[in-house]
Amino acid sequence: MPGLLADRDRIFLNIYGQRDWGLDGARQRGAWNGTADIVAQTPEWICDQIKASGLRGRGGAGFSTGLKWTFMPKQESERPHYLVVNADESEPGACKDREILRNDPHLLIEGCLIACRAIRAHTAYIYIRGEYVFERERLTAAIQQAYKAKLIGPGNIHGWDCDIRVHHGGGAYICGDETALMESLEGKKGQPRLKPPFPAGAGIWGCPTTINNVESIAVVGTILRRGAAWFAGFGTEKSTGTKLYAASGHINKPAVVEDAVGIPLRQLIDDHFGGVRGGWGNLKAVIPGGISVRMIPAHEAEEAVMTYEDLQARGSGLGTGTMIVFDKDADLVKAIARASYFYKHESCGQCTPCREGTGWMWRVMERMVTGEAEMSEIDLLLDVASQVEGHTICGLGDAAAWPIQGLFRHFRHEVEERITAYRANRGSYPGATIAAE
Question: Measured between alpha carbons, how far is 227 from 249 in angstroms, rounded to an integer?
Answer without folding.
Answer: 37
